[in-house]
Amino acid sequence: MTLEHPSSGLIVGLREFAAAHGGAKGVIEYVGRRGARIVLVGNDGEWGDQFAESTEIAREACVRAGITVENEWERELIELMRPTNDLWRSMSKRTLAR
Q1: Mean pLDDT, the chain, integer
Q2: Per-residue DSSP letter, 36
């Protein structure tokens, strides 16, 4: 069994996000066959995401990039996020479409 490592592009992307937003925290979400989504929340309230091949690779990438990984969506982390109006609109469309 070979141990997979995060790509340098993933690590660079995480570092760049953190540097642009005064630091960042992340939450890793399993997304099935696609792998894992790393949702990043900057210290300025902006957010973004990156994808990795697995949750293990996502965690390793965060460690190498200096991103603190939260185990779940804590209230303080959610309150830090500043969603845009476009995000609110897209979220309401998803809810209405169900």
Answers
A1: 79
A2: E
Quick count: other Cβ atoms within 10 Å of Cβ 64? 15
Residue 85 has pLDDT above 80, yes or no: no
CA-CA distances (angstroms) from residue 94 to 33, 46, 51, 89, 98?
22, 21, 21, 9, 7
Asked if residue 53 lies in contact with residue 35, where contact means CB atoms within 8 angstroms, the answer is yes
* Confidence (pTM): 0.72
Q: How far is CA 73 from the centre of its chain?
A: 11
Listed by start position, the domains of the chain span 8-97
Sheet with 47-52, edge to edge strand ranges? 47-52, 36-42, 24-30, 68-70
Residue 52's nearest CA partner among 95, 97, 13, 91 is 13
3-state SS class at 82: coil
